[in-house]
Every structure is written in structure tokens, then in C-alpha cells.
Specification:
Blueprint lengths: L1 H14 L13 H7 L13 H12 L1 H11 L7 H7 L11 H12 L3 H4 L2 E2 L5 E2 L3 E9 L5 E10 L3 H22 L3 H4 L1 H16 L1 H14 L6 E2 L12 E5 L4 E2 L3 H6 L4 H19 L1 E3 L7 E3 L5 E3 L5 E3 L2 H15 L3 H11 L8 H12 L12 H12 L8 H20 L5 H17 L1 H31 L3 H35 L1
Parallel strand pairs: 5-10
Antiparallel strand pairs: 1-3, 2-3, 3-4, 4-6, 7-9, 8-11, 9-10
Helix pairs in contact: 3-4, 3-5, 4-5, 8-10, 13-18, 13-19, 14-15, 14-19, 15-16, 16-17, 17-18, 19-20, 20-21
Length: about 500
């Protein structure tokens, strides 16, 4: 089976003229010349190479389509023309028989479908490469039809198909790394490993259910975003049941206008929701394309499909905010030093060189009015610039850039005059003030106080352990260090007590 699949990949590679890649390698140019003697698909005649890559992936099936979609977000690795073309890939797959979905559910829970749901519609309402969605109704106390729900069911046998294709992708990645002139910089094996993790996360619907539950909890009571409730009693690794959401697809702007939805307000909501997720929660929905977003009758966004999420540390959030603020203030030196301090570029990078590179790429962006500048484009340009400096772009930042581009595209579709910077700057400034001001200090002290409270009583024991050790050469040094630490901790404890007292008094 694997040999047959490999042959299919190789023949597709040739049919779409991708052997042109061989022409880039001096030792393989003979293979490129020989392959041109064989017949090619007439569809690709005259098409540029990026288009042929997209068409080849589409012909290889849903897993390769998904791989191309993920690859399109890696603009730090791919030339722009390839990333733009791969972004056009669509994950459209015919549905499988609803009876098979019913059987999958019954096996997962060990019960007939009638004992699980009051009613289950065998006709799927949506279908993708990994799973499809059915409509159903929960039982109420009288065994009558209760709440309406969406039931997501994995495709049967999808795991074996994925493992087979991933094994072949690893082989192709090793070949690309060895044969392509830019193979090592592109890190094909690491990209495939990242895709492997992403795909296996998506195959576990309990993972998606937990993501949805977390996002819902973060936005409880929000007047901007509603997230469906998850019914964990009816969730398993291959089945997920959540609240059915009634709304209008955000792409259907004419219908939204007919319903009296304020599109300008909606576009601002999108930006505010994004920055709330990133800077307040450090946890964001990373697949916010229009197909996953609806609008409720009350004008709130509805988020769906939680297979891909991103998370940021306090460290990432701080440097991200610094970069945004420095960029829009045209402080390119601060952009450069923030990259170095955060570890996004090697520590031995000269700040002046990085500053000059950032200025060269980003200064032309300011030729446009500020309201037309794209945040996503800013990140994209910074990632492209970073190639020269061997930057290690973190996966969470790549997800962030992809999500930001989606949010911007959606926002400007709803309101072409949306000023993203005017909407985002007050949020960023307030967040930075909270982090570096007295509030941030008091919050840090309150968070660290429990750790210090357990550390202080342990110092005598640590001192006794040091005195009992045979390492006499380190004894005096260790004793001195512990005494110094004791004094420092005493001062810190006193400071904590004073600050907490002031805080309580202020209340």
C-alpha cells in the first residue's frame, strides 16, 4: 500500500511539472532535463511553479491539502508567492455515510443512538477531511426532544491514512533537506513534525472540546463573543457534542445588513476580541477564518471549530506588545533590541544591523495612511526580514500572525475604513501600563508571596545540609550565600507585608 501511494506521489510530482525543482540542484539537472521528455498534464502548461504546487497538493488528497494550508502560514520559511498560492487551498471533501457516523457514535459510548440522543439526523450538515458534523437533539427529563446540538464525528479509518501519508512526508522531507539548495534553512523535517502534532491534536476531539470549554469560560458574559457549550458526557476521542449555534455566516454581509447588524461595530469587535484573547488570556482561537465565524441575532460573534488554538506566555505577550508599540512609533532600534532580548534572534546579533534591516522593510509601509496599515503585514515583513538573521520563529507566533491576518481581512471586509491601530493602541497601552506600573508590581508580589512563604522556612534546613556536606571547599561560600539570601528574603518579606497592607487599606 505504501509503495502504491509513493508511486502516486511521484507520478503526481512529475505530472504537474514539479521536477523543475531538480533544475535548482547542480547534481540533479540531468534528471530535470530527462523528465521534460516525458508527458505532463496539459492543465499545468504555462502555469507558474507555485500554482503547480497547489494543484499537485489538491490532487493528492485531503491530508496533503491540510499540509499545504499549514505550510501557507510559514511565511518565515516560504517565499511570498508560494505562501499566497497555498493559502488558496480549500479543505472540501465529500461526506461519508451517516449510518457509518451513527455506528461510530454507538461504538464510542457502547449504547444505541436512541439512548444517547432524542433525535439524530443521519444527513451531515458539514464535511471536511478529518470529520463531519450532524445535527441532533438531546433528551430532556421526559425522553422528549430537548436542546439542539451539533455532533462532530471523525472519519472512520482516518488515522491509518494519516499515518501512511505522514510517513511518506517524512521521506520527502529528508530528500528535500538533502537535495534542495535551500533545504536546510527551510527545515522540512521540523515542518512535517509540527504538522504531525497539529494533525494528531485535531484527531482527538476531547482536545478540541477542552479548547472550546476554556474559550467559553474566558468569555462568560461577553457582549462581543459567544462560544457554544460542550456536553462532555457525550464526548469521546472520536465524537464531540456541543450546543447548536443559530447565526448568519459572517461572510454574508448582505444578510447581516438586512438583519440590522452594525458592520462597523462588528469589525471593531473582531479586533478587540483578538487582542483580549492574546493579551488578557494568553489563549486564542487560531483558526478564525470566515467559515468558522457566525453572527448571532444580537450582533455577537459566534466562534466554531476549536481544533487549533494558540497560547502565549507572559514573556511572549510582553515582547509582542513592545514590538507593536515600537513599530508604530517607528522606533526600529527598540524593535531590534526586543527581538534580541526575547531570544527570537540569536543573542550575538548586532542590534544596528537588525535595526537597519527592519527599517528597510517596514519604512515603506508608512507611506500609506495609518488606518490602512496591516498588523498582519507588519508581522509578516518582520518574519521575512528575520530569515537573514537565522531567527527561530516560535510556532505560537506563526499561529498568531495567521490569525491576525484572518481578523484583519474579516474586519476590513465588514468595514473598509477600519482603523486597526486606533482600535488596538489603547488596548496595548493599557496592557503595558498594567504590566510595568504599580498594579503589575502588586500583582507579581501577590503571585510570588506563596513561593517565598515556603522558601523562607526551608533556609535553615538547606543550611544544615550544606554544613553536613563533605565539600569543605564550598562550605564557606555556601554558608555566605545562604546568609545573604536570608537577609534578602527578610527584606522582601517585609516589603511584601507593607505593600499588601497598603493594598488592603486602599480597599
Amino acid at each position: 500500500m505504501r509503495i502504491a501511494r509513493f508511486y502516486k506521489i511521484f507520478s503526481t510530482f512529475h505530472r504537474y511539472g514539479l521536477s523543475d525543482f531538480f533544475g535548482l540542484h547542480p547534481r540533479l539537472r540531468w534528471l530535470h532535463r530527462a523528465s521534460r521528455l516525458l508527458p505532463r498534464s496539459s492543465v499545468t502548461r504555462g502555469q507558474p511553479l507555485p500554482v503547480r504546487v497547489r494543484l499537485a497538493l489538491e490532487s493528492l488528497g485531503p491530508i496533503f491539502v491540510k499540509f499545504g494550508q499549514v505550510l501557507s502560514t510559514r511565511r518565515d520559511l516560504l517565499p511570498p508567492e508560494y505562501a499566497d498560492e497555498l493559502a488558496l487551498l480549500q479543505d472540501r471533501v465529500p461526506p461519508f455515510d451517516g449510518k457509518i457516523a451513527r455506528d461510530q457514535i454507538e461504538i464510542a459510548f457502547g449504547k444505541p443512538i436512541k439512548e444517547l440522543y432524542a433525535e439524530f439526523d443521519l444527513t451531515p450538515v458539514a464535511s471536511a477531511s478529518v470529520a463531519q458534523v450532524h445535527r441532533a437533539w438531546l433528551k430532556n427529563g421526559n425522553d422528549e426532544r430537548g436542546r439542539e446540538v451539533a455532533v462532530k464525528v471523525l472519519r472512520p479509518g482516518i488515522l491509518s491514512v494519516i499515518e501512511q501519508d505522514l510517513a511518506l512526508m517524512r521521506v520527502l522531507a529528508r530528500l528535500a533537506e538533502r537535495l534542495l539548495p535551500d533545504g536546510r534553512r527551510l527545515k522540512p523535517r521540523e515542518v512535517v513534525a509540527e504538522f504531525d502534532k497539529y494533525l494528531h491534536d485535531e484527531l482527538d476531539l476531547m482536545h478540541e472540546a477542552a479548547n472550546a470549554s476554556q474559550l467559553r469560560r474566558n468569555f462568560v458574559g461577553s457582549d462581543q463573543l459567544v462560544v457554544p457549550e460542550v456536553f462532555f458526557d457525550l464526548c469521546a476521542r472520536n465524537v464531540m457534542t456541543m450546543e447548536w449555534m443559530h447565526g448568519t455566516p459572517v461572510s454574508q454581509t448582505d444578510r447581516l445588513i438586512e438583519q440590522g447588524v452594525d458592520l462597523k461595530k462588528l469589525s471593531r469587535f473582531g479586533v478587540e476580541i483578538f487582542f483580549t484573547q492574546v493579551f488578557r488570556h494568553g489563549f486564542f482561537h487560531a483558526d478564525m477564518h470566515p467559515g468558522n465565524i457566525f453572527v448571532a441575532a444580537d450582533g455577537r460573534y459566534i466562534a466554531l471549530d476549536f481544533g487549533i488554538v494558540g497560547s502565549l506566555t507572559e514573556y511572549d505577550k510582553r515582547y509582542l506588545a513592545i514590538n507593536f508599540l515600537a513599530f508604530f512609533n517607528r522606533d526600529y532600534h527598540r524593535v531590534a533590541t526586543a527581538h534580541i532580548e526575547s531570544g527570537w534572534v540569536p543573542k550575538d546579533t548586532r542590534a544596528e544591523e537588525l535595526e537597519a534591516a527592519v527599517r528597510t522593510v517596514c519604512e515603506p509601509i508608512f507611506e500609506k495612511p495609518l488606518s490602512q496599515i496591516s498588523f498582519g503585514l507588519v508581522l509578516l515583513r518582520l518574519f521575512e526580514t528575520s530569515r537573514r538573521f537565522n531567527v527561530e520563529i516560535q510556532p505560537q507566533l506563526v499561529l498568531l500572525q495567521k490569525t491576525l491576518l484572518n481578523i484583519e481581512g474579516l474586519g476590513r471586509q465588514l468595514d473598509p475604513d477600519l482603523d486597526l491601530w486606533a482600535t488596538a493602541k489603547p488596548f496595548l497601552v493599557k496592557w503595558m501600563n498594567e504590566q510595568i506600573g504599580w498594579r503589575g508590581l502588586l500583582r507579581t508580589l501577590k503571585n510570588e508571596a506563596p513561593d517565598w512563604a515556603t522558601t523562607l522556612p526551608a533556609i535553615p534546613r538547606k543550611l544544615n545540609e550544606a554544613l553536613s556536606a563533605d565539600h569543605t571547599g564550598l562550605l564557606i561560600e555556601g554558608y555566605t550565600q545562604l546568609m545573604r539570601e536570608q537577609k534578602r528574603q527578610n527584606w522582601l518579606l517585609a516589603l511584601i507585608a507593607v505593600l499588601l497592607g497598603l493594598l488592603l487599606f486602599a480597599r
